[in-house]
Every structure is written in C-alpha cells, then in structure tokens.
Predict the structure.
Amino acid sequence: MRMLSCEEVLANLSNYFDGECSAELRAQLEDHISKCRRCRVVFDSTGKMLKILVDVEPFEVPLAVSARLYSRLQEVLSEE
C-alpha cells in the first residue's frame, strides 16, 4: 500500500469524515494517520470539532446582540 503524504491526507480529510472516499483511500488515510503524529493531531481535532458542531443545539441570538452585529456589519460593508 502506498504511503500518502501529509498534504494528501489533509486534502482528503473532508471526504473521509463525509464517508465519501473509497475503501482503499480510507485505508491509506488511516495507515498514514496511525504513523504520523502531526496528521493524527489534525485528524483528532477535526473529528472532535465536528462532533461538537453536530451535537450543539440551535439557539436564538438575543435581539440586542443581533442588532449590534448587523449594525457593525453595515458599517464595515459601507466602508468598502
């Protein structure tokens, strides 16, 4: 099995997490991640972040906060 480069692993992480890569590519990614500490940290961090994002319940932004946000956005956009 060919060892992927770190760049190839990072380029394919999204497909890995989305379940959109072939079994061969999945095995290559998992093999590389098991041997490369740097890619393993990125992989673990990305997986944890996705879990947090998926598990978060939607919430309504308080009116005062959203009004300040929209006001600031309008200021920034008018400066351009």
Observations:
- The two ends are 52 Å apart (CA to CA).
- The chain has a mean pLDDT of 91.
- The first helix runs from residue 6 to 18.
